[in-house]
Write a structure and sequence with these properties.
The chain has a two-stranded parallel sheet. Helix 3 crosses helix 13 and helix 5 packs across helix 13. It has 2 domains: 224 residues, MetI-like (MetI-like fold); 247 residues, MetI-like (MetI-like fold, Orthogonal Bundle). The chain has 553 residues and is mainly alpha-helical. It contains 24 helices and 2 strands.
Length: 553
């Protein structure tokens, strides 16, 4: 083995270990501290297991997550089928409208649903508003998974089945279901995860009548004490661990079947409405599309309209915006509104840059060897931040770094690191998908001609991966901008540090019946989020940042 080979392998191992170490230090270590403290003092478990209320809330949390997942799939799969199969005028525009909600702040979405349904919820049932809000968030995820999978689906299999006399039911059970079960289950697991760990939406839409494990951990931590909050966090972690294992098994199984299921991207067929609505299935698909579009647009449009309406008279006004640019500190928020805007932007810039650096290191280490099972397992580590509770992570950080006075005087650092870890999986996916679209013949030709690594980096990888790089950066920026749980936790524990972000200010003011400012702040947040996403769209990076699989040519 030559020195060059040894150096190359050493650098690759070091590159793989860098994000793993950061995840272990700032994510797993705090979570592990919660586990240790929980098992070190079992009184918290005694308090949980002796109170039937906790069992009811735990069952409710799982139940609402399952129901949210079911509704999301019922709406998202038909829409994903339409986008995957058909080409029609305005397709790209509509796909953009369906995708944007995924990066919108949870408190902003919650406020939009409050405007439409009121604090008592749809039909005076807050749970219905919560389920629809979860569907609002996760429908884009299902659409991206299903449409990308359908575009890679060899439709000649269906034609062959019809030629052999197969009816619709047999075609569904023997062709569609085996092939599309993977993306459906994966999207379902991720939807369940986001609904199970939902925090901001429950806080706003629950109207004090509904609690989940996530919100109960938060409230118990500040009221009853850390013992029961930590016990609940541990029980929640056990559920999270279960679907992490399921997700890993699904992905590892998919590696062996990828060649059998992946084909070149199929051309979409033109959508002819007369033919489309000739069968009853066309009405079902069209109804799902229209309902989904209304669900995604109505809350956001209502926020923009209400930003210019006086809270109590509903008269047109600009007064909601007049005070938010004042530099005077708002006691309830702990900072002025311009300061919260600056905090949000700084945390988003810092978090997105950290996410991008970690993602670049990871992708450089994994390269195109990701199809090996070992590489897929390493890549799956990058998804751990998605499945960790933000509230549990915040408690762990308070117990470890803050409790040991490590960086305790710089709490903003933990917000940036946490936001960076949240965006890291998405930037990694963007770069991996961008890398997999590079024609191997280009790399092989450069290697044959003796091109050095720096020349290949400058002439091949940087130009071709730049859109993916910027798109991933913008996506991480949007996610950080809208993050609420971690920012709220630190703003509350460091109330004199002025750490509040726009999302925290929106929640605190709205929750304390200051209705004018939240309407204006919501409009500002909405504009910032849309600008972030349209930057992704401008660079053609939407599909690169989605969690869907992209077929290499």
């Amino acid at each position: 083995m030559t020195m060059k080979t040894i150096t190359s392998k050493t650098l690759r191992v070091a590159a793989i270990l860098t994000p793993i170490i950061i995840i272990a230090l700032f994510l797993l270590f705090p979570v592990l501290s919660v586990l240790i403290s929980g098992f070190g003092d079992l009184s918290g478990f005694a308090g949980v297991f002796s109170n039937v209320l906790y069992f009811q809330i735990f069952a409710f949390t799982i139940g609402q997550a399952l129901l949210s997942t079911l509704i999301t799939l019922l709406i998202g799969i038909p829409i994903g089928y339409i986008f995957g199969r058909y080409e029609f005028r305005g397709r790209k525009f509509f796909l953009t409208l369906f995708t944007i909600p995924f990066i919108l702040p949870s408190v902003l979405v919650g406020m939009g649903f409050l405007v439409i349904f009121g604090s008592d919820g749809l039909f005076n049932v807050p749970l219905l508003s919560i389920i629809l809000a979860h569907a609002f968030y996760n429908i884009p995820l299902v659409i991206q998974y299903f449409s990308a999978y359908y575009q890679n689906f060899d439709r000649s299999l269906v034609d062959a089945a019809k030629t052999l006399g197969s009816n619709s039911f047999n075609t569904m059970m023997r062709i569609y279901l085996p092939i599309f079960l993977q993306p459906i289950l994966t999207a379902a697991l991720l939807t369940f995860n986001f609904s199970f760990l939902s925090f901001g939406l429950i806080q706003l839409l629950g109207a004090g009548k509904i609690a989940t494990i996530e919100t109960l951990i938060y409230s118990d931590f500040y009221t009853i004490g850390q013992g029961q909050a930590i016990a609940l966090a541990i029980l929640q972690l056990l559920v999270i661990l279960a679907y992490i294992v399921i997700y890993l098994l699904l992905m590892r199984t998919n590696v062996g079947k990828e060649k059998a299921m992946t084909t070149e991207v199929q051309p979409r067929e033109p959508l002819k409405l007369k033919k489309f609505f000739k069968r009853y299935t066309g009405y079902i698909l069209g109804g799902a599309f229209i309902f989904g579009l209304l669900l995604e647009l109505a809350p956001m449009i209502s926020i923009l309209i209400y930003a210019f309406l006086e809270p109590y008279t509903n008269n047109f006004t600009f007064s909601n915006f007049e005070g938010i640019f004042s530099l005077d500190k708002i006691p309830l928020v702990g900072a002025s509104i311009p300061k919260t805007i600056l905090n949000s932007l700084l945390f988003a810039v810092g978090g997105s840059l950290l996410a991008t650096v970690l993602a670049v290191i990871t992708v450089a280490a994994l390269g195109k060897q990701r199809r090996a099972k070992k590489s897929v397992s390493i890549e799956m580590i990058t998804y751990i931040p998605i499945a960790i509770s933000s509230v549990t992570l915040s408690i762990g950080i308070l117990q470890t770094f803050v409790g040991l006075n490590l960086f305790a005087n710089n709490p903003w650092l933990f917000i940036i690191i946490s936001h960076g870890l949240i965006g890291y999986p998405f930037v990694t996916r963007a770069l991996m998908n961008g890398l997999n679209t590079i024609d191997p013949e280009i790399e092989e030709s450069a290697r044959t001609l003796g091109a050095k690594w720096f020349y290949k980096l400058r002439k091949i990888y940087l130009p071709l991966l730049l859109p993916s790089f910027i798109a991933g950066l913008a996506f991480a920026f949007g996610l950080s901008l809208g993050e609420f749980a971690i920012a709220n936790f630190f703003a509350r524990n460091y109330s004199d540090s002025g750490l509040s972000t726009l999302t925290v200010a929106l929640y605190l003011l709205r929750n304390n019946r200051h209705l004018g400012y939240p309407r204006a702040i919501g409009a500002i947040l909405l504009v910032l989020s849309y600008v972030s996403f349209f930057l992704i769209e401008l660079l053609g990076g939407r599909e690169k940042t989605s969690s869907s699989r992209v077929t290499t040519k």
